[in-house]
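[job 0417] fold request received: PUM-HD domain-containing protein
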Amino acid sequence: MPVPGSLERSFSVAYTIHKGRQRHQRESRRKSSIQCQLNPQPEQQRSVSPIPLKECLDLTTTRRAALAAPLVATAVATVANPARALIQTGQERDSTRQSQNAIDRLQSRVSTFQLGNGMKWIVLERHNAPIVACHTYADVGAADESTGMTGIAHLLEHLAFKGTRLIGSRGFERESEALDQLDEIFYALRDAKVAKNSKLVAKLVEEFARAQEQAAKFSAASQYGSLIERQGGVGLNAQTSQDSTEYFVSLPANKLELWMALESGRFMAPVFRDLYAEKEVVKEERRLRVENSPYGRFTEAFTEAAFPGQAYGRPIIGYPSDFEKIGRREVTDFFTKNYTPCKLTCAVVGDVNPVEVEKLATRYFGSWKTPCASPTSSSPRSYSELWRTQDGWDDFAASKPPPGEILRMSSPAQPLYMEGYYRPASWSSDDPVLSVISDVLAGGRVSRLYKRLIAPSRVLSAECLSSFPGDKFPCLMMLYASPTPGSSSTEKLAGLVHDQLQDLVRQGVEEGELVPIRKSTRASLLEALGSNSSMARILSTYEATAGSWNRVLEETREIESVTRDDVVRVASKLFTPSNRFFRRWARERDDASRDSGSRSSPVILSAMLLDRCHRGKERTLKSRLKHFSLRGQIDAETQKYFSEVLALLETIADDKEREALCASALEEARGKELRLASHPSCGRALEKLIQSFDAARLLSFLGQCTADFASMAMDPSASHVAEMMLGSLSEILQQNGGDAGLISSIESAVARISEVLQGSALEVMGNKYGSHVLRKFTLLAAGLVETEGKDGLSRKLGRMDSMAKTCECIHAGFPRILKQLTSEILVACKSSMSERRMDQFSSLVFQTILKALHGTGSDTSSAIATLLGFDQTEMISPKVLERILELMENQNGSHLMEVILQVASNEVYAKLLEEIFKGNLKRLATHQFSNFALQTLIAFARQEDQVSLFLDELGKDFTELIKKKRAGVIVSLLGISRLVATVICPKCASRDTLVLRLLHLEGHDSDGKSGRKMSILGCVMLQILFTFSQDCSQQYYKSFSVLEMTQILEAIKDKAGCHVVEAFLKSPASPKQKHAVIERLKDHFAVLATDTKAHYIVTKCFEAANLKLKESIVMELIGVQNDLSKSRHGPYILGRLNVAKYEKAPDKWRQSQQTSHAHKEDYEKLFKREQPEHHGAPRRKKQKYQ
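[job 0417] inference complete; emitting structure tokens
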């Protein structure tokens, strides 16, 4: 069928790009390219808070946004395919001239100024979109920490967005007092531990926990981030390295002043709230990334030995012995000493006016008069003065350890060899040459290590890092490699790497090897112009460390001017035996074949090391290129093509046209799926395309992505594409369950993806994005989807999300694949299970595995035993018991235990209750996290004797639980128990005040009165009690029936209390008690009926009243008929009570009410059956997938 004109033109453009890209007119390409560089499209953020890979060697930070992606967009394409990078001579000249014009225009748009206190500002005007990127570079990193106080710089990153005195507090004066008391207890506890006073330590630990809870009452630490998000901010984050700490965000341009106000408050009046809670987070991070990771331990040992007694030798995350000693005093001292105005450089890039930026900066930061720290070798001034003035080769000669020292470590992980060569800091005049050497060795598929070692399968992986672990001070050029499967000789590995280095020294480098490096350097700079956030980071970093942002342009020219003689000269200095430092580990031979608990993919390791080295301060353009080589970048033409595809998909309604467009796009994506998915805008186009794919095209595209599925899963953008593919597969399976051929094809595709995920299970499950994809894949293999519930009560009680979720079966699933996948994940995690199950993202994966296995009998029980670390056939040992109790006292561990208890069989549940919970109920009930696991244990009790156990062990502590705000445990008990005669306030003077005390459970005074809103917990408890029979809840029915009129009205007008009144009126309480309550409400029914919130209580009172009371209610409503008829709810009330009939014929109305009452009694006698008495827990509703 003919295509409309506009669509025809769009199809023509898409078809031309797809079929004739290399035949595209040269002039059109040049104009398009330079236009993209000079007028880039506005950034589009995919997620609120993009966070990078969280891997075992990634020790620098846990909250870092992947910012510099646009810096390498065309650089990767240049290295991979020089023909597409305008290699032809004529095109080279045109491209160089146009790129130089783009750089010249950049120089004219940048302006700088410095405040009187020394704070530097740099502004880049870009008026193409109303957005602004703000980047604050603090010349403060882990290297600035003093000996014995490591980890503070990284901890400050965790505390970066906890707020100020004005933001993040529910009353700063009271919060300040609570924090002071908390600090006092912390330092007393620290001294008691040093003195080894165990009794005092035990006492202070309890006091410290209570003080933390008290301080948490006044904390609203999430306000800072929420405020930014509500105002349109994205990418709010911070990151720490050895050399610096950086803070960044992107906002609408009209919110620049908001950012100024918040940023000044953060630096001038910070409040380090939640400090001790964040310390626990960092401790768990270290356990996961270092102590339970062979690569983490090995890298830390390598760095310590390479830089003995130096700042670079200390881990960014800190030593545990140092970290334990850090309190608010030490953090405040470090912040005050190091975070001074002269150490900060702010870059503002976007739709802004430099004059206005300077005015705002002066207004919000000009009054900051903190004195600057004394100049050091790392200060911006000395750093910039040294820039390119010396080669720096003599600065580290005395600090090197003896050469030839070898450290061996045994581990079941893949063997690894690390080798470093000492090099000068980045200010050295030889730094550009060192950057080129790094790229000659490992700069993509045309590099020497790839062509000579990886391609012929002599090694599995080999990489080179230009500078490690920082570059402000003398550092290392580091190389590392992994052997091929079946080989474990690190000596042979070292020889292969060393031969390549010596060949570079002896034979030099060919001119053809330098050409792509020069081109990719300039391409990287030009592509950075397409991103506000990347430019903000580059400008602030160079301005702070090199003295001027213009140095980035100088460095580009320096790299382009490096000659073959320069490479040989510097390589001869660098790759010498006396300058060499190396470490190696050997695989643990006796366990290598059976224990894969710590195994990690060397390719993923490469990505992790790159991320660790260059995340904090990616100063050189080539290091930025290497850092993002795993994330695919797309050239301008491809971006344009997929943008047009996305626009067409929004408008095309004809199925044939959409099919043709999908076929064209699928062909265009072939071979670059990962790069497309990793690009934000192209990724969105792929998501839209996947929604339009039929089963055949979806399976084809999935097959193309299978090899890179693990990498896609861990990428902020590509993970959305991976999830969309899995979601589409679920829909196809749900709709085509009877097609055996299609099911078989899908099963094969799912099996291949499962194998890929199993190979990188540890990395994927510990990653924020990868965890979500792996959970979705697990549910797909089980034939389930997770649906959100609307359990408001569970959220109020602080329950985990999964408590309000149910799994719905949508297809038969793939049991064999599911069993293999879950078994491999559990086996891989076995050696680090203690830490994995407390990790936020790994814990969620375990929860999903349990849900997927639920109903499989022995598989579920085996998974529970593996997760908790016990043998099903033996008693749980005291050591394992204590670990399980500690697990439940961890937030993520408590969530995991809740799911374990939900899916446990009767036998496993009984074992857990008898050997773990029994005797520890009070400890668990009073803890802020474990009490939720206990609530689940109670809610899923199977037998009456189990309920009796709970009551016997906890009954005497109910008053204490209420005082400690742990009444949720009591709510759970009430939900399953009929034995509640004296569970609340058993010693109170008058039972008539029971209901009143529960209504004001969390705020009542000695008289049971309160001016605050009623307790939701207390109201829920009363609602449960009012479902019990008279013999169980008589005292509560009586207590409610004697409430005063004002107290009943207060309850009706309260959001939670009104449900209690309704529950009482519908309860088994005697008619006399109900009538007494209704009698007290006389003369108030007219007011209640017109109230938009309390009106339904009128109908409930009418239903429970006798004829006399019904008549009095109707008589009151006659006077407000007109008002009621105009409201939304009024006509219903008037009709339900038949007010009009009473006004016309009262006798007939009375007769009809009597008749109705008689019919109701007859119906109940004939049909209403008495509900059977339940003992223990109510029977659970059968899951849909059982």
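[job 0417] notes: The radius of gyration is 34 Å. Residues 1082-1161 form one domain.
[job 0417] exit 0
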